[in-house]
Write a structure and sequence with these properties.
By secondary structure, the protein is an alpha+beta fold. 53% of the residues lie in helices and 14% in strands. The protein folds into 2 domains: 73 residues, Arc Repressor Mutant, subunit A, CATH 1.10.10; 99 residues, Arc Repressor Mutant, subunit A (Orthogonal Bundle), CATH 1.10.10. It is built from 9 helices and 6 strands, in the order αβααββααβααββαα. Strand 2 and strand 3 form a beta hairpin. The radius of gyration is 21 Å and the shape is elongated.
Length: 188
Amino acid sequence: MKAAIEAILFAVGDSVEISKLAEVLEADKKQVREVLGLLKEDYGKEDRGLDLIELDGAVQLCTKNELYDYLIKIAKAPKKLSLTESVLETLSIIAYKQPVTRAEVENIRGVNSDYPVNRLLEFGLIKELGRKDAPGKPLLFGTTEQFLRSFGVKSLQDLPEINPLQVEEFKMEAEEEARQSENVEVKV
């Protein structure tokens, strides 16, 4: 079973759901998880170049982070994600509020979010999840496996909890900024 799982993960190259592995191997998920634990242990050894990561109920083979410098010498360097403050802010809202519409994101941010949402879609960090049952049927957005991979979390439940006091502080700051922008006179 260990060799079969390794072969599947290597050949697929992307994440595979643990339930799908169990189905293909005609085993229960507990057995598959035990074998995955053995593989993870093997890959954890210093003389191994691979690692096994879990992403929201799925697993994937990947290279160890500490070997990155060798990889970029032989292959093209992967495109580095350049996330501006507005893009990160938008991603945070989507990650914590998903599924969420662009209008809901804009309501929270207080500004147009077309650019950040489009950049996040381009980077593969978010995806369209469908349409909201509301007037205009707006698109719903949520995070992707690439988001989990990029930020090193297994699932959305592993995201840090938001401090309620900090949320209140942010709300007060946003309200103050809104009041100040209303009081600004436009001179022509």
